[in-house]
């Protein structure tokens, strides 16, 4: 949240970082990275892809627990990650309304900070990796999934800037917000599990 707060402060006060941010944004938009691929990556951050995959994974885990039975409180992490995903649209919309940052010249208008697509992809795909922790064959496989998720989210952010939909700082702030929401989901799930363990011990 410190990173998100610093980014927001720079946007609201038109701080010195914004000039460098916009110069970097112009360089990325004028790069030779294929526009078609950039558009595909930008679309991958939409509400249909990541959240749909997360919803399917949660339903799949619910179905498996119903058929074969699962450990007590198996629903803790699916519940908290689902709540984290549901919080993305209202939090992003609130920040956009409060900051009113103008978008890149290609897009125009205002209300581009932070990036909703970036936050959606970060939380949705990050939550999927968290939910797959128990299904991973080994810790090495799970860390491989973490790496793939990180690279993919970086590519989504790059695609959004390349297509002129956002400035780089919009993307960075959304990564910070997404990581905070995922941390909150894991922390809340652990609190539920500790409560279970305490109840069983008593």
TrEMBL record:
Query: TM spans, by residue?
Result: 43-65, 72-92, 112-132, 141-161, 173-193
Q: Which Pfam families match?
A: PAP2
The residue ranges of the Phosphatidic acid phosphatase type 2/haloperoxidase domain are: 109-188
Keywords tagged on the record: Membrane, Transmembrane, Transmembrane helix
On whether Membrane is a keyword of this UniProt record, the answer is: yes
- Superkingdom classification of source: Bacteria
Q: What's the protein name? A: Phosphatase PAP2 family protein
**Organism of this sequence:** Streptomyces odorifer
| InterPro entries in the cross-refs | PAP2/HPO, PAP2/HPO_sf
């Amino acid at each position: 949240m410190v990173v998100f707060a610093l980014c927001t402060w720079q946007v609201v006060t038109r701080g010195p970082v914004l000039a460098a941010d916009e110069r970097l944004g112009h360089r990325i938009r004028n790069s030779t990275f294929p526009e078609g691929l950039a558009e595909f990556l930008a679309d991958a951050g939409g509400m249909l892809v990541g959240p749909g995959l997360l919803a399917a994974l949660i339903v799949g885990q619910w179905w498996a627990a119903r058929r074969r039975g699962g450990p007590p409180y198996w629903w803790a992490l699916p519940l908290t990650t689902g709540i984290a995903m549901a919080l993305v649209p209202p939090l992003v919309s609130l920040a956009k309304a409060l900051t009113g940052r103008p978008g890149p010249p290609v897009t125009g208008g205002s209300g581009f900070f932070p990036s909703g697509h970036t936050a959606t992809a970060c939380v949705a795909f990050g939550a999927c990796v968290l939910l797959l922790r128990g299904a991973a064959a080994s810790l090495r496989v799970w860390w491989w999934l973490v790496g793939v998720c990180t690279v993919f989210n970086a590519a989504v952010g790059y695609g959004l800037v390349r297509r002129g939909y956002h400035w780089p700082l919009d993307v960075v702030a959304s990564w910070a917000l997404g990581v905070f929401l995922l941390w909150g989901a894991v922390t809340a799930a652990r609190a539920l599990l500790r409560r279970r363990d305490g109840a069983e011990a008593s």
